[in-house]
Amino acid sequence: MSLFELRNVSYRYPGAGQSALEGITLDVEAGSVFAMLGPNGSGKSTLLRVLLGELETSDGSVTFSGRPSDSWGRREIAMEVAFVPQAEPMAFPMNVRSLVEMGRYPHIGVLGRMGPEDRAAVDGAMERAGIMDLGGRSIRNLSGGERQRVRIARALAQEPKILVLDEPTAALDLHFEMETFELMRELTEEHSFTVVVATHNLNLAARYASRLLLLSKGHIEALGSPDDVITADTIGRVYRWPVLVTAPEGLGPGAGAPQVVPLSHDGSTSSG
Fold first, then answer.
1. Whole-structure pTM over 0.70, yes or no?
2. Distances, alpha carbon 196 to alpha carbons 45, 138, 168, 201, 253, in Å
3. What gap in Å lies between CA 268 and CA 202, rounded to an integer?
4. What is the 3-state secondary structure (H, E, C) of the chain?
């Protein structure tokens, strides 16, 4: 079952000389991790905003759960889809638990009162995101990685069916980077979530996502399984750098998935 269906979608920002997206056609299947890849400026964040209905396409159509995306109300879609941004401004001081509780707004409204089910959802989201010990701390006193985990917890508290993340591991160290991708896998396998993630991490995307989209200058360069997308020729061309692609065993989830090793500029594995 396809949750998102895009057909020949294009988008151009007002005043821009060329389109940020051009002729995008793809499906996002339910219960999967779908990863968007591409260099800076390739159109990943724009495509996420089109999926979420924040941007109206210049051409083409976007369908969510069988309905045109523009027919969904904001609160209605928030009951189905939660978005985790790469960063966001904090207008006023707030502790961690209060921010996570904001994920319940689609269910109770801005002025609604938290009930037992809402508090249980917040507790569960904080535990799953690994931030139970941060509940009373101010958001302003957290590291970048800790803030990102709080944003993930807020999204989980929303109890959506689809989690959309924009560069969720950009500020995380190795431990929490791995935990984040492990969480994506667990959500799809154990809780019937669908995860859409834009990321620069080619190797983790290849290990944890079932389908990959590789964008370049607003166009689709490759779309399909990790083996179809992560090839030395394709990655080298799109990123304009020579790479070696291997398929190591012993990785746990994603064993045998293609992994990218950047080479020296002359194409060798070492500079010596």
1. yes
2. 11, 29, 11, 14, 18
3. 20
4. CEEEEEEEEEECCCCCCCCCEEEEEEEEECCCEEEEECCCCCCHHHHHHHHCCCCCCCEEEEEECCEEHHHCCHHHHHCCEEEECCCCCCCCCCEHHHHHHHHHHHHHCCCCCCCHHHHHHHHHHHHHCCCHHHCCCEHHHCCHHHHHHHHHHHHHHCCCCEEEEECCCCCCCHHHHHHHHHHHHHHHHHCCCEEEEECCCHHHHHHHCCEEEEEECCEEEEEECHHHHCCHHHHHHHHCCCEEEECCCCCCCCCCCCEEEECCCCCCCCCC
The answer to whether residue 128 scores a pLDDT higher than 80 is: yes
- Give per-residue pLDDT as tens, 213-223: 999 999 999 99
Q: For residues 92-122, b (16+ Cβ closer than 10 Å) or e, as one string?
A: eeebbbebbbebbbbbeeeeeeeeeebeebb
End-to-end CA distance of the chain: 51
Indicate the average pLDDT of the chain: 90
pLDDT value, residue 268: 65
